[in-house]
């Protein structure tokens, strides 16, 4: 069957939706492969665990402030650490960076960008290196074929008691709290109704960590699903074709949370990203 005929059978808007998805795929791949994208992360180091203030592979002395509200970085000019593009000579107090744009981090070490982040009151420095081996070896992202049947209508139902935190395992072997705000209710193409526990993220969109029948078989062990902000009546479009790999699929230096209770679907979701390509 030709592509044109297949698209025609999908419905009047299917061709446009497919092309939009293809453009999204191109942008997604470019973002992953960017100089300071997830492939460039070579380490995430907890400041409190830095013996004598030494972070592996980095110069200077790193320490949490006495009140725990910031990180103190001390270095000399010869160390080569720069803050706001000026070589550091002395001590500076640093706060949390915007992880959405690692390339604009205040601290750099040559081409590397050092991003300060905080998780449950603990500080860490994450290293982004454009010369990371994982970035050089990247060949793309495998995905399931686009399927309009996996664009579903859903409803967001906030928890009556408000947001909660659930302890879940993370990719680094630790357990941490995962903030959850309610249930996303949807029907699969076969007609069964299901729910996912979701978080509300910046902009009001929903985010879920999920596994399904393909997980660990034909796709990565778990994946991320994002939606736009719910509309009137808490209705939301759930496009499983835009399910993504978690950052830890690209490098081992992320802290990705595993699916919370109830987010392991017993059926296959053959849509979205599958694995990092090895060819």
Secondary structure layout:
Elements: H1 3-10, H2 14-33, E1 41-46, E2 61-64, E3 71-75, E4 81-83, E5 86-87, E6 90-94, E7 107-109, E8 112-119, E9 122-128, H3 133-137, E10 141-143, E11 151-158, E12 164-169, E13 175-180, E14 182-187, E15 193-200, E16 206-210, E17 223-226, E18 235-239, E19 273-276
Antiparallel strand pairs: 1-9, 2-3, 3-6, 4-5, 4-7, 7-8, 8-9, 10-19, 11-14, 11-18, 12-13, 14-15, 15-16, 16-17
Summarize the structure.
This protein has helices spanning 3-10, 14-33, 133-137, and strands at 41-46, 61-64, 71-75, 81-83, 86-87, 90-94, 107-109, 112-119, 122-128, 141-143, 151-158, 164-169, 175-180, 182-187, 193-200, 206-210, 223-226, 235-239, 273-276. The protein contains 3 helices and 19 strands.
Description:
- This protein is 12% helix and 35% strand.
- The protein has three helices and 19 strands.
- The protein is globular and about 65 Å long.
- It starts with a helix and ends with a strand.
- The model is unreliable at 1-12 (pLDDT under 50).
The stretches of 5 or more residues where confidence is low (pLDDT under 50) are 1-12
Q: Strand tally, please?
A: 19
Task: Note the main sheet.
Answer: 6 strands, antiparallel
**Which band does the percent of strand residues land in?**
35-45%
Rg, Å, rounded = 21 Å
Q: What is the overall number of helices?
A: 3
Features:
six-stranded antiparallel β-sheet; 35% strand; disordered N terminus; 19 strands; globular; 279 residues; mainly beta
């Amino acid at each position: 069957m030709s592509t044109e005929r297949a698209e025609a059978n999908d419905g009047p808007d299917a061709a446009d939706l497919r092309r939009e998805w293809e453009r999204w795929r191109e942008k997604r791949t470019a973002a992953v492969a960017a100089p300071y994208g997830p492939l460039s992360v070579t380490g995430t180091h907890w400041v409190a665990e830095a013996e004598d203030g030494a972070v592996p592979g980095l110069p200077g002395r790193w320490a949490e402030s006495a009140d725990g509200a910031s990180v103190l970085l001390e270095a000399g000019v010869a160390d080569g650490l720069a803050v706001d593009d000026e070589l550091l000579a002395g001590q500076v107090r640093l706060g949390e960076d915007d992880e959405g744009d690692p390339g604009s981090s205040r601290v750099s070490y040559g081409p590397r960008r050092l991003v300060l982040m905080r998780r449950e009151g603990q500080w860490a420095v994450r290293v982004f290196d454009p010369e990371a081996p994982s970035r050089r070896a990247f060949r793309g992202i495998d995905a399931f074929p686009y399927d309009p049947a996996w664009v579903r209508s859903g409803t967001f139902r906030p928890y009556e008691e408000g947001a909660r935190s659930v302890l879940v395992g993370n990719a680094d072997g630790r357990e941490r709290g995962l903030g959850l705000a309610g249930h996303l209710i949807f029907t699969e193409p076969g007609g069964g109704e299901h729910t996912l526990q979701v978080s509300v993220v910046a902009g009001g969109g929903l985010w879920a960590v999920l596994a399904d029948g393909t997980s660990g078989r034909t796709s990565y062990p778990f994946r991320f699903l994002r939606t736009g902000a719910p509309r009137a009546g808490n209705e939301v479009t759930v496009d499983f074709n835009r399910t993504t790999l978690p950052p830890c699929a690209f490098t081992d230096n992320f802290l990705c949370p595993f699916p919370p209770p109830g987010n392991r679907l017993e059926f296959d979701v053959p849509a979205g990203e599958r694995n990092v390509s090895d060819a």
